[in-house]
Amino acid sequence: xxxxxxxxxxxxxxxxxxxxxxxxxxxxxxxxxxxxxxxxxxxxxxxxxxxxxxxxxxxxxxxxxxxxxxxxxxxxxxxxxxxxxxxxxxxxxxxxxxxxxxxxxxxxxxxxxxxxxxxxxxxxxxxxxxxxxxxxxxxxxxxxxxxxxxxxxxxxxxxxxxxxxxxxxxxxxxxxxxxxxxxxxxxxxxxxx
Amino acid sequence: xxxxxxxxxxxxxxxxxxxxxxxxxxxxxxxxxxxxxxxxxxxxxxxxxxxxxxxxxxxxxxxxxxxxxxxxxxxxxxxxxxxxxxxxxxxxxxxxxxxxxxxxxxxxxxxxxxxxxxxxxxxxxxxxxxxxxxxxxxxxxxxxxxxxxxxxxxxxxxxxxxxxxxxxxxxxxxxxxxxxxxxxxxxxxxxxxxxxxxxxxxxxxxxxxxxxxxxxxxxxxxxxx
Lengths: 193, 225
Description:
The complex is a heterodimer. Chain A has helices at residues 2-12, 26-30, 37-64, 67-94, 97-103, 106-111, 114-125, 132-162, 176-192.
C-alpha cells in the first residue's frame, strides 16, 4: 500500500515536473516527433535508479557524518556525468546511425537533469528511521511519476508547437505552454487538498 | 571548431534583454519557479547563479580546444557543482542562521543552491561557449547572469508581495524584519508552484510583446524616413 501511495502521490501531488524540477527537460522527453524517445525514457529511468540507490547510500553516510549532506549534490552530479558519458559511448559504438541522428543531443539534457538531483534531495529529506518500503518506493516511483507527467505535458507541447495557427493572434507572444502547466499544477493542488 | 564573433557589448545586451534566459529562452526554470517564492531568496539565488555561470563559462572557454559538445556540458556541470558545493559549505560556516531548516523565516538556500549546478542555464551556456570567442562568452555570461538575476528579483518581489502582502528580510543572525504593504487581502495560491509558472509566463509574455512591438515599429520608422 505504501508503494502504491508513493506512486500516486509522485504523479498527482509531488510530481517532479509539476513542482518545477526538470521542467525544461520534459520537452524532449515527451515530444512525439522523436521516434526513438523510448530509449531516452529508459536511459532516464536506469540513471534515476542508479542515482536513487546511490542517494540511499549517501543518506546512510550523512547519518554518521553531516558533511555528506553538503557533498551529496556534488557526488550526484559526478554520477550523472559518468552515466551520460557511458550512454554517449554506448550510443557511439552500438547504436545504428538512424537512432543516433534521431536522438541527436537530446540525451545531454536527459542525463544532466535537475529532476534527478531532486530525487536525491527528496531521499535525503526523509526523517531518520523512515521505512525502507517508502525509500524504495520513492526511488522507483518518483522517476516513473516524472516520466508519466512529462509524457502528458509533452503532448500539450506537441500540440502547441505543431498547431501555432490555432491560437488567437493576440496571444502569439504568450508562453501558452507555461500557462498550461500552471493550470495543471493548480488542478493537482486543488485535487490534493 | 570555428568560432563566431559578435563583440562584448552586443553579447552582453543580447543576454541581458533580447535573449533573456528566463523571459525569452526559458532557461533555468527550475530555479525561477522555486526561488521566487521569496524576494530575498530570489536575490541570493540570482547573485550566486551570476557568479557560478560566469566562472563556469570562463573555465569552458579557456579549455575549448580539447572539449566537444558533450565534454563541454559535463565540464560545465562539474565546475558548477564544485562551486555550488563550496557555496553551501561557506553558507554553513558563515551564515548558518540563514539556512537553518528549523527556522521558518530562513531561506531555502540549502536546497536551492545545488540546483544551480544542473540548471539548463549553466549547461546550455557552457555548451554554447564552444562556438564563440572568449570576449563574446564573457559578455554573454555576464549579460545572461544579470538578466537572470533581474528577472528573478522582479518576479520574486511581485510573487511574495501578492502572496503575503509583505516582504520579509532575514539578517545573517537569523532575525527577520517585515515590510507590510497591505493587510487582509492576499493571493496565497501564488506561493504554490502554480504561482511560479503563472508569473513567469505573464512576465515572459509582457517581455516578448514589447520586443515584438519594437520589431514591428522599426520597419515602419524606416519607411517613414
